[in-house]
Amino acid sequence: MGRGLRPPRATADHSSTGSAREARAETGGALWRGTMTTLVEHSALAVQVSGGAALWEPCTAFTLDGLAADAGDRFEMWGVARVVAGGWTVLAGTEGCVVPVGAEHRWEDTLCASLQRGPEAALAGDLRRRRDPEVRAKAERFGLRAYVGAPLLQGGRLVGSLCGWSRTPTTDDDALRARVTRNASFLGATLARELHRVDQERREDWARKPSSRDHLTRLPDRRSWGQLLQHEDDRGRSLAEPAAVTVVDVGTVSSTRALRRLAGALRESSGSAGVVARTGARQFGVLSTSTPEEGPLAVSERVLEQLRSAAPQARAGSAVRRGQTSLAEVWVAAEGDLLSARHRATR
C-alpha cells in the first residue's frame, strides 16, 4: 500500500472561466449525487463491503472526489482522517490538501476537535468571526477561512473525521452539511469493517507458523521478525493503525533453560496483542498493537514489568508508530531507546 490515497480533484481548473467552472461543478455534482445515493442507500454495498474486500480506499476516493465536485470552489480541499490514541492522521486527501497525508497531529490541536459536536456535520463559513479564540488561532495557523466536517463513528466511538476546508469564507449550506453527515456515516461504517478485516488478518498471521524459527526458543527468528513488521505495515500502515516495537537485551543468561524461561515470560506478558521474536543472541523484539481496552504501549509496559522480576539485568527500549510511519523506522527508534537505557544503567 502507498502512503495514502490522493484522488484527483473533480472541480474545474482555475484557468477556466467562471461560467465553465460552475457548469462543470453543477454537472459533476448532479452525477455524483445520484451515484452516492445508490452507494449509501443500496443494500448491495453493505453486502459487498462485509464480504471481505478491501474497499476502504476506493470508497474514500469516490467520496472525496464527489464532495469536491459538489462543493466546487466553496470548499477546495477535502480529507479523511483517522482518530486514534489521541492522534489525528489524514489518510486520504484531495490535491492541495492543507494537511499532508500520513502526518500525525494531536487531536486536540485540530479544528475537528473544536467544532465537531455529535454525529451531525459542523460548518463554519468564516473562522475569523468565531468567538472562540482557540478556533481562530487554529484557523490562522493553517491559513483557513472555512470548515465543514463530521465524525466517523464505530459503535458510537470516534475513529475518524471527514473534513472540507477553504482559504476563502463561504456561506452556510444546510444541504452540504447533510451530505457531509451522510457520507461520514457511510465512511465510518466502511472504516469499521476495514479495521475488523485488518484485525482478523493480523490474528491469522500471528497464529500461523513462522517461516523460520530460532532453534533454542522456538520463537520467530530475525528473518521472520522482519516479515512480521512488513506484514503489519502492509495491512495497517495506510490506516495509521497503532503499533509499538519493544527491543529487549536480556544480558548474560546462565543457561539455555534460563533463556527459554525468559522467552516464555516475554511471550506470556505480550498476550494476544503482541508477538515476540528472537532477533539476536541476547536480544528479543516485541511487536504490539492496540485492543479496545489498551494501546500498544501497554504491552511494552507489561514486558518491562515482567523483566524487572525475571531478569533484573535486562534492558529494554520501545517506540510507537506515529501516523503512517513505517515499522522499520519505529524499530530503529526503539533501538535508540534501548541504547539510552544502557547508558543510564552504566551511570
Task: Put the structure in a nutshell.
The protein is an alpha+beta fold.
What does this structure look like?
The protein is 47% helix and 19% strand. The chain has helices at 18-41, 43-50, 56-71, 111-115, 133-142, 174-207, 222-236, 256-270, 296-310, 327-346, and strands spanning 77-84, 87-93, 104-106, 122-124, 146-154, 157-166, 243-249, 274-278, 283-289, 315-320. The strands form two sheets. Strands 3-2-1-6-5-4 form a six-stranded antiparallel sheet. It has a four-stranded antiparallel sheet with strand order 8-9-7-10, with helices on both faces. The protein folds into two domains: 18-197, 2-Layer Sandwich (Beta-Lactamase); 209-346, Reverse transcriptase/Diguanylate cyclase domain (Alpha-Beta Plaits, 2-Layer Sandwich). The longest helix has 34 residues, at 174-207. The protein is built from ten helices and ten strands. Residues 1-53 have low confidence and may be disordered. The chain is an alpha+beta fold. A hairpin with a 4-residue loop joins strand 8 and strand 9.
Count of alpha/pi helices: 10
Q: What coarse outline follows from CA principal-axis ratios?
A: elongated
| CATH-derived topology of the largest domain | Beta-Lactamase
| Strand numbers in spatial order across the main sheet | 3-2-1-6-5-4
Count of spatially separate domains: 2
Overall CATH architecture of the largest domain: 2-Layer Sandwich
**Using only CA atoms, what is the Rg?**
24 Å
CATH class value of the largest domain: Alpha Beta
List the helices and strands in order: HHHEEEHEHEEHHEHEEHEH
How can the largest sheet be summarized? 6 strands, antiparallel
Helix/strand-derived category reads alpha+beta
Seen as an oligomer or otherwise, the chain set is single chain
Average pLDDT reading: 85
Tell me what portion of residues adopts beta-strand conformation. 15-25%
Spatial gap, N to C terminus = 44 Å
Work out the number of β strands: 10
Helicity, as a percent range: 40-55%
CATH homologous group name of the largest domain: GAF domain
